[in-house]
Amino acid sequence: MDVALPPIIISSGLMPTGSLIKSLIHISNEVSSLEKLPFLQSRNISAMIRRIKFLSSLFEDIRETNSPLPPSSLLCLTELFSVIQRVKLLIQRCKGGSSLWGLIQTEFLSNQFHALVKEMSGALDILPLSLLNLSTDTREQVELLHKQAKRVDLLVDPQELQRREELLQIMASNNQKSSRNEGFVDLVKVKEVFSCIGLRSPLDYEEEISKLEAEAEKQAGTGGLIVVSNINNLISLVTYSKSVIFIAGHKEEIKENFKHLSASMNRNQDVSSSSQSRPSNIPNEFRCPISLELMKDPVIVSSGHTYDRNSIAHWINSGHHTCPMSGKRLIHMALMPNYALKSLLHQWCQDNNVPLIENSTSSSSKFERSSSKSKLSEKDIDRVSATKAAMDAVKMTAGFLVGKLAMGSTEIQRQAAYELRLLAKTGMDNRRIIAEAGAIPFLVTLLSSSDPRIQENAVTALLNLSIFDNNKILIMAAGSIDSIINVLESGKTMEARENAAATIFSLSIINDCKVTIGTRPRAFSALVGLLREGTASGKKDAASALFNLSLNNANKASVVAARAVPLLIELLMDDKAGITDDALALLALLSGCSEGLEEIKQSEILMPIVTDLMRFGSTKGKDNSITLLLEMCKDGGEEIARRLLINPRSIPSLQSLSTDGSLKARRKADALLRLLNRCCSQSHNPVG
Hints:
The chain is mainly alpha-helical. The protein is built from 36 helices and three strands. Strand 1 (298-300) and strand 2 form a beta hairpin. Its EC number is 2.3.2.27.
């Protein structure tokens, strides 16, 4: 239900007038006669049906007059047919889809209704009412409809928003309590929310479960792992609520293909467990479909079904790659914790005095003293392999955290962004998995957060993720660059600004990213601002980002225009800044464009500074110093060359570099010595 309505293709060209009017009357009557409107979007649906009834009068009048229609009216009627068809589809989706998922998507659905009203208004803009032979009542109705449609505002039912917030609070509270092994939320509140959206009988609950399962299957291919996980948590919530509220349930029919596995697992259980008294009234929803025992650690597989972790891990380790319940092939082997069901399990166990023993490799001292073969088997049940288990753990953690970013409160989002920041700090696999879990778009959205910690954690997480090259493309594709520049310009903490600069540096390693960022002059101004105001590490990040961007020749002029050159020269004299080599490298690079070279030549203090760095600087500093001096002296730089000759330290330094410097430094030192020789040959003895 969270995808846009597809465009309706009527035909190439326009329908014949008679067929078009007949089709319009038919579809208008279909929409107008809809009964048993859904509980959700009822105000939008009622208003839309009322508009279409007005239009139906228009269509009836046109049919009765049976006179030729002007071309513009045919175009208008064709557009109206398309709009009404999409209205019909949208109402059917609201009626036939999951009520809970529709509640989550209430703003999205309201926006779709609003967009259709605006399309209706646009179609009526080209309707020549004055040229149509209509009754006075019909004309006035259409004019009124047109005026109302033009000024209609987006209608999001406040009661639906309130119910959605209550549902999200239930889900968030459920997850919080599950992490602390506390009981489940108040089922009275759950029943109240469900009742308000039409879930009032056991049959309603069963139908909602079926609709949620269908939605999960539809979203499995496009919605991402976290969306499917959220839907499955809703399924667990409805399933348990039905069982508790209506004290009803029936035994699940278990398929033949895993009965043998169940028996095998039961035989491998600790002997002491068979002597324990087991409750006979375990709800079917709490039994693992494989072992038929009370689940201890429920997890969701890619098909959407829930199993006990040990049972499904044993199933996968046995060589199966399908879901035991559905028989469908598992598109991945990640096991997502079913936090909702786990909370319900804990609550039920507490209410029924049933001890809940967590899955463990050492459930009893007797089992710990068993043979090494038994211990190995227990480990095999717990994971497919060591590497596989690590990857699955990262997948589950990433999926869980992305869910918190999507649906959590401010405090939860802050913590989730921080945890993702840490998780993305190490390991390329971690960065890949986090991106696959859908974290990047949510992190980009959080860059605009008013909470300083959320913004800082989000931009730092993106920085860490960008180290993986494929993620650079995904981050850019998420439309992140303007948000990153906003943080760089006016981030709420200096660390956020500096990490935004580091993110731009990382992204700009990709040539296409250099070009994209280069179209934003604000990026260069913001980087120069950080170069002036940042800490030592921030200045270094800014200088590195500017250097990377300047590797694209088209960006050099933008860096110069942002007044980078005077600041870089100042930083050459600032030992505390600690970025002498970075500033010198950037100046050398900017000297390769006419705008940069002209501004560099205007500096009265640069030449003696660079001469000293050529003598006392690092190897990298010496290379960039000679590059910069050579560019300054070439192409009309006679005055700078004469000043260089006057400096008593310049010629010895050049001679030293021509013999002892790097290959690059030797070559450029020789070139500069030859240039200086030509400069002074008429009035001085040659140098070198």
